[in-house]
Amino acid sequence: MKKAKKMLLAASALALVSFGLIGCGEEDDDVNEMISGGNNDYLIAYTNDSNLTSRGYVPTTLKHAGAIMEFKFTNSTANSGAGVLGFIWELKDDGAAAKQFYVLGVRQDKGIPSYYVSHFTNVTNINAENFGTKLPTNPAVEDFVSPLNGKGDADGVGFKKIGTSSWADDAGTVTVYADIADVVGGYEIRFYRTKVAAENKSDLDKVGDVIKIRSDCDAAVKPDQAYLAVYANVYGYKTLTGSWKYVKTSRDLEVAEAE
After folding, report:
1. If 0-12 CB within 10 Å is exposed, 13-18 middle and 19+ buried, where does residue 115 land?
2. What angle do CA 188, 194, 196 make, to 5 degrees?
């Protein structure tokens, strides 16, 4: 990338938003049209009328090494166990029509949030079940990060509860803040109940364990910036309403053009 072009992109991004996510990518695999919005805020209000899980994801055009994400589930009682709000980072194309990325998926059951973190490689159909790990030929590969065995302890198989009590407020909304932070050698993820605690990275206010990820980057440096995305799963005959918000992204001043 030419230095002048990079400086122009950085100046344009900073003029529009403080943390650089200024649009969606040309590629849009939300084939079910579940996700709306753009820039830094995305919404879902989707009823799945089939017995199959509906899936979709929306990528951004800019690269960052992590983010503080707000996941919000509205009407938590009616939408208990309805589906997943997810965040994808380190989204890369291996040059052979396949993708690889990390995934943080969050859901809620009766107000109690739960999560899973995995790394997927050889993803040729991002809308296939579990990103294509069950395809009969050339399946994707999932490496479990947390829970390690992929079984979890929540009602949904493969999810681990964040705390033991309901996070629902008086209006029935469950809000989870996740800080996906790039560190030397990989990433660390912490969960919080409030935006202030997440922005301050307060260990006193975090909920649950710190998730530590060893990336495939050099162990002595931080991971390279790569594309980010949001995704959703809505289970059969369920309605999922909620939102995602990029509260802050990592290394905000390093703006990179789409490949």
Report:
1. buried
2. 85
